[in-house]
Amino acid sequence: MKKRVYIKTFGCQMNENDTEKMYILLSDEYEPTSNPEEADLILINTCSVREKPQYKAFSEVGRYKYLKKKKPELIIGITGCVAQQEGEKLIHRLPYLDLVLGTQGFYFIKEALETLKKNKRPVIFTELKSDFKPPLILGKKDKLFPEDRKVTAFVTIMQGCNNFCSYCIVPYVRGREISRAPKDILKEVEELVKNGVREVTLLGQNVNSYGIKEKGHPDFPELLNMLSQIENLWRIRFTTSHPKDLSDKLIKVIAENPKVCKHIHLPLQAGSNNVLKKMNRKYTREEYLEKIKKLRDTVPNIAITTDIIVGFPGESEEDFKETLEMLEKVRYHEIFSFKYSDRPFTLAQKLENKIPEEEKEKRLKIVHQVQANITKEIYESYVGKELEVLVEGSSVKNPNMLMGRTTTNVIVNFNTPRLDLKGALVKVLIKEAGKHSLKGEYLETLKF
């Protein structure tokens, strides 16, 4: 009988993808459980990009201390960015921990468990190698989670970052940029498609720099075209793109390749040149707006989303107003906005003129209000239109409706006479706009 593993994931899509890999790596000896009380192995896959998810992770680990007392043979581990950031300090802070596996270390989880069994003391693996080649991990996730057959899937194409934005911990916990071999990416996507996946989202801290350093690798636009040759793969998404590296070649592929979704996540972070310079973003607001113009001119129906940080050290009222102006000028479909928080190792933590917490909170609320009005207007413009939707499953709020996404990454919930359309590409008439989604009526099935 197999042992049981429970994994709690915090943070970005890359962490979600890393968790899937850990389930596959462990699948010979462990089966997943959704109940930590039943687990023989508990892993907390962590994020440290901001303070909040890091605190959540520590709180989560603390919840399992009593389980360890009840069941001393229980193995508890921390993986991901907090493990990479804190390393051995975690063992001193949380003496009941057995494993600390960083952003490359989790690939060796089976070996770590063997070492733990042999030596009976905590195993720490936080080395970051610049020449590390992530192994190809293939596994049928639908066999691990039969009730969770996915139509969409994340595929990590590169790890790490070379940009060193002054507020960002990623280069320190994910290392320098490493691109995966294209043959491995193709093989992984082909395997996913065989298992029913119809849409993949390619992941990287900066996908635009994929393959630039590696001799003989295609660049990112070329990789998109290669993947689009895979039969029965209907859609390709990607995230994240650094504005400074957004090329005309990539914009052309988004416009001309029918499988590449008409959506791009292009983090602005701040609308003021003064703040952008302190952030070490390596572009100006004018250069960013020029990229937006090229995108809109070449791909008229494109949806653009972004990240915004409010309250960066030294951000004046005027700087903040310039960020609000950018929201109005660009008119993003959606934004992900955050209050600035100091992160270890970063240059920004040493900057003076920190913004008080209450002021950051106030600015964040204003950003939310401004963007809510813009999103409302954009979503209302979809009413009366017929849109293609890839069906992902039942609607979260109403199991008698189906849910999917448009090529522009807008969620659509819709009524339909049949509920067995998971994985189908359908046409939907939009009847109503919500805050972050659309509602409509099924018209016809285009592909199944």
From TrEMBL:
Describe the location of the MTTase N-terminal domain by residue ranges.
Answer: 3-118
- Where is each TRAM domain found? 380-444
The record's subcellular locations are: Cytoplasm
Gene Ontology MF term list: 4 iron, 4 sulfur cluster binding; metal ion binding; tRNA-2-methylthio-N(6)-dimethylallyladenosine(37) synthase activity
Cite the Radical SAM core domain residue spans from the record.
147-377
Identify which cofactors the protein needs according to its UniProt entry: [4Fe-4S] cluster
| PROSITE patterns recorded | MTTASE_N (PS51449), MTTASE_RADICAL (PS01278), RADICAL_SAM (PS51918), TRAM (PS50926)
Give the main EC class. transferase
What Pfam families does the record tag this protein with? Answer: Radical_SAM (PF04055), TRAM (PF01938), UPF0004 (PF00919)
Record bears the keyword Acyltransferase: no
Q: How is the cofactor bound?
A: Binds 2 [4Fe-4S] clusters. One cluster is coordinated with 3 cysteines and an exchangeable S-adenosyl-L-methionine.
Entry's SUPFAM superfamilies?
A: Radical SAM enzymes (SSF102114)
Reaction(s) the record says it catalyses: N(6)-dimethylallyladenosine(37) in tRNA + (sulfur carrier)-SH + AH2 + 2 S-adenosyl-L-methionine = 2-methylsulfanyl-N(6)-dimethylallyladenosine(37) in tRNA + (sulfur carrier)-H + 5'-deoxyadenosine + L-methionine + A + S-adenosyl-L-homocysteine + 2 H(+)
So what EC number does this one have?
2.8.4.3
Binding of [4Fe-4S] cluster 1, residues = C12, C47, C81
Question: Gene3D superfamilies of this UniProt entry?
Answer: Methylthiotransferase, N-terminal domain, tm_1862 like domain
Residues noted as binding [4Fe-4S] cluster 2 in the record, renumbered to the chain:
C161, C165, C168
**Subunit details for this protein?**
Monomer.
The family assignment reads:
Belongs to the methylthiotransferase family. MiaB subfamily.
* Biological role: Catalyzes the methylthiolation of N6-(dimethylallyl)adenosine (i(6)A), leading to the formation of 2-methylthio-N6-(dimethylallyl)adenosine (ms(2)i(6)A) at position 37 in tRNAs that read codons beginning with uridine.
Q: What name does UniProt use for this protein? A: tRNA-2-methylthio-N(6)-dimethylallyladenosine synthase
Gene (name only): miaB
